[in-house]
Design brief:
Layout (H helix, E strand, L loop, with lengths): L1 H48 L18 E6 L2 E5 L1 H40 L7 E4 L2 E4 L8 H16 L25 H12 L1 H31 L1
Helix pairs in contact: 1-4, 1-5
């Protein structure tokens, strides 16, 4: 009975393996067809633009990938839009910087208001008071500024505080689209070639997952074959 159960499990795994092999061939054919179509479209673009204008010399070494994959397990792979993720992160950083700036400005205004209120509460100094003929008269200290000079200084400080500080120049973000390597007005065949290769990414991921499942099934089949020999 144990040998019969092992044989049944082995037959089931072999059937699964053959189905996966069939899926593998179908996906491989789809990828080959798309790659062939993409190469033909690139050849048309070379004919239109000239072979020197569509070549490896146009490759930009500053290039950043616009597509990626996230692999949770060998059989769970998802495609990521890296360009959109970088754009979203940059926007979040800009919003955080704006919020931080607004908070600093609000705290600065609050501190200025507290200082102004405290200065209004300070009583006048008695150093300038002199007694003349039994009466009290206010006299200005020799080192204290004149009212005119004080008004001028306050006007200057107010003008400086009202002058907006120039915002730091933002670095212009480069467009990650590789089509711009070949100019602004590219032929439609080159644009269609890009679309064909991008549409082949899901098939490539599916092919990778199928290969991983095939490797796992091969290990399980080998294990059952060894177990079958031991129970025979």
């Amino acid at each position: 009975m144990p040998a019969l159960s092992v044989c049944e499990d082995l037959d089931s795994l072999v059937v699964q393996y053959m189905r996966l092999v069939d899926e593998h061939l179908n996906v491989h054919d789809r990828i080959s067809t798309k790659f062939q179509e993409g190469r033909e479209l690139i050849s048309q673009a070379k004919y239109i633009m000239g072979p020197k204008n569509v070549s490896a010399d146009c490759y930009d070494n500053r290039m950043k990938a616009i597509r990626g994959v996230a692999m949770d397990t060998p059989t769970e792979i998802t495609i990521r839009d890296l360009a959109a993720e970088r754009k979203r992160l940059a926007k979040e950083e800009e919003e955080n910087e704006q919020k931080k700036k607004e908070l600093q400005e609000a705290m600065s205004k609050r501190d200025d208001g507290e200082i102004s209120s405290r200065s209004d509460e300070i009583p006048p100094s008695s150093e300038g008071l002199r007694r003349r003929g039994g009466g009290m008269t206010m006299s200005r200290s020799e080192n204290s500024p004149s009212p005119i000079q004080t008004s001028i200084d306050e006007a200057k400080s107010q003008a400086e505080s009202d002058t907006p500080t120039p915002a730091p120049k933002k670095k212009k973000e480069r467009n990650p689209d590789p089509l711009l390597w070949f100019g602004v007005f590219v032929p439609g065949s080159l644009r269609n070639a890009q679309a064909v290769f991008q549409n082949s990414l899901p098939d490539i991921v599916e092919l990778t997952v199928i290969r991983q499942r095939l490797l796992q099934l091969e290990q399980d089949i080998e294990r059952l074959q060894v177990l079958k020999k031991q129970t025979a």
